[in-house]
């Protein structure tokens, strides 16, 4: 590593790369120096912080946060761990239970867990791993908080939130929902939806009646597929669409583009959801 | 104490003014005292549709600016003593009036009339804001075309933002034959998109054009399907339960010949 401290900016967060070999006391001064230099460039937005290259204790993390708040106008919303919590949970499960990576509870066989553990201990271990996995999935959805909107979003109306958005009602053409997290529509999505607006590619859009004009997730954008023939037929288009798929559908990013599939247990168990 | 109803649509040319004129005529035939207010300043034509153009002396802007008394600006309808009109000014623009003035005016009119019906201009600018300022409820007019429905959706959203939650919908110029062929949205389709209560369906009818040109609104004219439809809308506004017209009774060739 050329420099013991370096800062990289991404859309929604900054990555702080630290050298492992230098004592933290020395590193602190370098961090302070670095952020002072970069203060004007970083601006005053709300961001997440990712620390890479070195594991910090809680006290050290707090010191870093303190430095950032002193030297820049940034507000750090959260500290992200380099290791994805989901991965950690699974790794733990794998190493401790000695079984393969598992994504469904039924597949966990208590027999596979080390025999020297008592039944209670085993159960506890499995539960703990699961709680962590679900917690991670929960965090992945954006935030523990969501904005809930009851009622229709009509043409010209827009809901913007840094949290995930849940709509009980229709989103009509010309209406729009923008969320830094995920979007859930219990009703017909016929307008525009923009999930992961701050760059989160893991964000997704779910609607019970999925007929959006446009879906955007992070940098990807998809326009409703409409055959020219159905447009000329006018209203029949609606009836055709009704025959096509009836259940809820989900849009997510896959290899940088937006994919769409039925929202069912198959999707929930797939890697797309637990990625 | 009367009720202030704004007739609005967002898109132009869907039949706001025609609907306003017919609501006024119909309600006055039900023995209600009605005043129509044209807020389309600069592009007025409610007076023309009612055949009252020649009687305008004072207008809406004169009233709010205090150039005349309210009673002086009330134009009595030709054949119906229960129906009055406050015409818009033609020489001014929408900014000649503001929301506070409209609220004051409608409050004053409410004291004297059973219904105050406001004809809203197209668009969502000052004219629209003025028209809805003093309104208790809204009648949204749309035609069964996606463009009109899209604008109606926007308007309903704006009305909701202004605390008018129960807008009622009039689907104008419906052609049952086209609906049957699947070339036009049905009233149900429109209602499904807009999610508001349906107040009435008015069929596309040549008589409407004739009536507009003559300056005699159709409401109450039993011979015309559109006239019946408008009358039913008035009854529903007045709290009666009226079933929707069967617009599908398309006259056969022979009955058409003999009825004329």
TrEMBL record, chain B:
One GO cellular component assignment for this chain's record is: cytosol
Asked if the keyword Cell division belongs to this entry, the reply reads: yes
Q: Name one GO biological process term.
A: negative regulation of cell division
Per UniProt, the keywords (alphabetical) are: ATP-binding, Cell cycle, Cell division, Nucleotide-binding, Septation
Q: What domain of life does the UniProt record list for this protein's source?
A: Bacteria
Q: Tell me, what is one Gene Ontology molecular-function annotation carried by this entry?
A: ATP binding
Question: Domain AAA: where?
Answer: 3-158
Q: Does the keyword Cell cycle apply?
A: yes
Annotated ATP binding lies at 11-18
The entry's function note states:
ATPase required for the correct placement of the division site. Cell division inhibitors MinC and MinD act in concert to form an inhibitor capable of blocking formation of the polar Z ring septums. Rapidly oscillates between the poles of the cell to destabilize FtsZ filaments that have formed before they mature into polar Z rings.
Q: Which family does it belong to?
A: Belongs to the ParA family. MinD subfamily.
Protein's UniProt name: Septum site-determining protein MinD
Query: What organism is the protein native to?
Result: Butyrivibrio fibrisolvens DSM 3071
């Amino acid at each position: 590593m050329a420099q013991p401290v370096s800062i990289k900016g991404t859309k929604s967060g900054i990555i702080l790369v630290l050298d492992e070999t230098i004592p933290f006391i020395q590193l602190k001064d370098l961090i302070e120096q670095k952020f002072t230099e970069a203060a004007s460039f970083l601006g005053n937005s709300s961001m997440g912080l990712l620390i890479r290259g070195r594991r910090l204790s809680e006290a050290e993390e707090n010191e870093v946060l303190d430095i950032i708040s002193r030297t820049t106008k940034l507000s750090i919303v959260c500290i992200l761990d380099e290791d994805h919590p989901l991965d950690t949970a699974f790794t733990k499960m794998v190493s401790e239970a000695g079984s393969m990576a598992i994504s469904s509870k039924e597949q966990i066989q208590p027999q596979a867990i080390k025999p020297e553990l008592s039944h209670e201990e085993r159960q506890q271990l499995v539960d703990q791993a699961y709680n962590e996995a679900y917690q991670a999935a929960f965090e992945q959805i954006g935030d523990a908080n969501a904005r809930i909107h009851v009622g229709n979003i009509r043409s010209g109306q827009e809901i913007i939130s840094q949290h995930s958005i849940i709509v009980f009602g229709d989103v009509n053409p010309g209406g729009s929902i923008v969320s830094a997290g995920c979007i859930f529509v219990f009703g017909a999505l016929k307008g525009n939806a923009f999930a992961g607006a701050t760059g989160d590619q893991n964000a997704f859009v779910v609607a019970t009646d999925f007929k959006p004009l446009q879906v955007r997730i992070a940098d990807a954008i998809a326009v409703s597929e409409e055959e020219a023939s159905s447009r000329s037929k006018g209203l029949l288009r609606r009836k055709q669409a009704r025959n096509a798929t009836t259940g809820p559908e989900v849009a997510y990013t896959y290899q940088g583009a937006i994919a769409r599939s039925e929202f069912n247990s198959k999707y929930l168990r797939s890697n797309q959801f637990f990625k | 104490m009367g009720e202030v109803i704004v007739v609005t649509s967002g898109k132009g040319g869907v039949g706001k003014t025609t609907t306003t004129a017919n609501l006024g005529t119909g309600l006055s035939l039900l023995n209600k005292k009605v005043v129509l207010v044209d807020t389309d300043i600069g592009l007025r034509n409610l007076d023309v549709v009612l055949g009252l153009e020649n009687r305008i002396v004072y207008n809406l802007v004169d009233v709010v600016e205090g150039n005349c008394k309210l009673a002086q600006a009330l134009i009595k309808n030709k054949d119906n003593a229960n129906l009055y009109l406050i015409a818009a000014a033609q020489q001014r623009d929408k900014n000649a009036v503001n929301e506070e003035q409209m609220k004051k005016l409608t409050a004053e009119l409410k004291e004297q009339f059973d219904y105050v019906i406001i004809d809203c201009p197209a668009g969502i600018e000052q004219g629209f804001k003025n028209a809805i300022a003093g309104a208790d409820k809204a009648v949204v007019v749309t035609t069964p075309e996606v463009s009109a429905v899209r604008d109606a959706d926007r308007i309903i959203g704006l009305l909701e933002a202004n605390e008018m939650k129960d807008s009622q919908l009039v689907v104008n110029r419906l052609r049952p034959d086209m609906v049957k062929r699947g070339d036009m949205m049905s009233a149900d389709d429109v209602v499904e998109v807009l999610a508001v209560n349906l107040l009435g369906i008015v069929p596309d009818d040549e008589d409407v054009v004739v009536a507009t040109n003559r300056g005699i609104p159709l409401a109450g004219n039993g011979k015309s399907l559109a006239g019946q439809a408008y009358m039913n809308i008035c009854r529903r506004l007045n709290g009666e339960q009226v079933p929707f017209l069967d617009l599908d009774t398309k006259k056969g060739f022979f009955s058409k010949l003999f009825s004329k």
